[in-house]
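yo

u said u wanted the structure for the complex thing, so here. seqs first:
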Amino acid sequence: MIEIKELTKSYKGVEVVNIPEMSIAKGESFGLVGNNGAGKTTFYRMILDLIRPTHGTVLSKGIDVRTTEEWKFYTGSFLDESFLIDYLTPDEYFEFVGSLHNYSPGDMKEFLGQFEALFNGEITGKKKYIRDLSKGNQKKVGIAAALMGSPEVILLDEPFANLDPTTQIRLKDLLRDLKEKYQLTMLISSHDLNHVTEVCERIVLLEKGEVKQDIKTSASTLKDLEEYFATY
Amino acid sequence: MVYAIMAGVAIAFKLDDFFPGQDPVELINGALLYYFFFEFLLRFFLQNVPVLSIQPYLHLPIKKSQFLNFMLRKSQVSVFNLLALFLFTPTAILKVAKEYGALTGLLWLTMIIGMVFTIHFLGILFKKKLNDLPNLLLGMVVLVAGLGALDYFQVISFSSVSKQLFGAVLDQPVFAAIPVLLWVVLYRLNYVYLAKNTYPEEISTKKNKAKVSGDFTFLKRFGRIGELIGLELKLILRHKRPRNSLVMSGLLLFYGLFFYTQDGFQELNGMFLFAGVFVTGSFFINHGQFLLSWESGYFDFIMTRRSNIRQYFEAKYYMFVVACTIAFVASTGYAYFGVEIILFNLAAYLFNIGIGIPFVMRIAMYSPKKIALNKGAAFNYEGVGAAQFLIALPVLGLPYVFYGPLAAFGYGNYGLLLVALIGLVGFLLRNKTIDYLTSSFTKNRHKIAAGFRAQ
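structre next:
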């Protein structure tokens, strides 16, 4: 689904990402972990063609993301608030994003139906702009919008941060569900080792822009990771 | 600032010429009350209250009194406080000191400074009280209107009150201490008020509004383009700064009055085209110069969503065209001053939609800067770069490149026709221009995005 070739990014001579080779298969749930400044977000931004790589390419379905906009049609993403139009209400925002995917009002209703448990009655039908929502609720809006248009790939940065415990559990269920039903490819980055090992079957550990570990999640993964970060 | 200094010097020197036979110092004293009232209004609407930003210090191990004093003192360093100083120092030196002696001059200035800071703290206090008592503003308006009416119908003359008040210091220098004393008192009042209300939610000026403005569902009929235009309109209506620039554009519709009402305006003929460009195009000049900066807050959204970039620019282009058209239609009212004005405006309008808009859109892509939309509008120069300073010049000047030479040889009408034709050709080729805009954006997208992300 996504292939990385010789990808590097450096700022003023300092390399922040250096991934010679990586491929993420369709339907894979991919978890990226690493301390602050490890290059996680920069890496995701390059996959989304938001940052120009110093060298190398990102291929999505075999096509360089820099040459076409094709990938936008099957890629959902939410990295931070700059993916939200904060002067709209959540309803208006969903409607706008929905219109980009040619949703009919019926489609919209069905789509939002899946999130009822997640939204907990605090998001839709309220006369409140996104900029006035709490961080957690903003995140819910962003994640829901990223899942609009039945994407084949989804990129989420820290999806569990700022969410309340109930929502964290519901979100995990939702992601697992989508993966099983639609073979959704998920790229998640998180500081929360618990969640990420629970949701992802593959964990990649990034340190100073380089891949230090690339493992299939097993029963001992969480312990191994904790050990790694404790002795860092 | 330079203007204030120049005005100050002008007041000191020129007052004699304008009002011969009257004592300039007395004249100024008479006007001071009005001036301070005006300054108070200016502060009320434009000055932001620095004391509101105490939140980051609240949890630090600093004594409350210490940072409150710090905040209040810091707030005194403000452009507004310099204004009066620049305006009246020349008078103090050249007039008051000359006539009444150096000491009196100094004291007179001291009085002015005292007043400035009194108003400064009065303004802050007033603005904060306003949150507790929303009717205060209404009361003030009524009071001011009442006093204004009394003054206007000469029941009470504020200028003579002002003369007596501020003139007192000339006879009895001790009176200069009063404003300074007021300054200290108001400082204290502010301090006490703040010390009692250090909870951020109590002193914040933000109001919780459960209001959602603007519904542009009708635009959906125009498909994706309409949808994008609706989004942009919401952006404009829901933020102060773009809304102000829209209002500004509306006011600039009346700009033509400056020209057309001049005596012998027939000779000013050449300037009509200039007025036309301005009147019909002020919106795209004002709003379009920050084309991408307006949306810097959610730029990543635009880049990753399946909205075609070409449509995105198309929507902006048509929005500007519609705005120009509305302005042009409204400007036909100027026919009152002569039918030929319509011809000028028509040529200017066509030139704007054909050449001006794409031109501004292209220039605006030249290293745009981030704009935080949720900040206030007054004295907000965020997003202003070299491009924004220079943008209006070519838009206003270009038509003259075509019109000027022909008009100089007496073929003004042909010149106008040429300008209109060039604009029309530009408009007919709009798809090509939008293609060009899209491709130059695509080339620069990473640079622009990085610029917006940098703080």
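Helices of chain A lie at 40-47, 90-100, 105-113, 116-119, 135-146, 165-182, 193-199, 221-230. The longest helix of chain A spans residues 165-182.
cya
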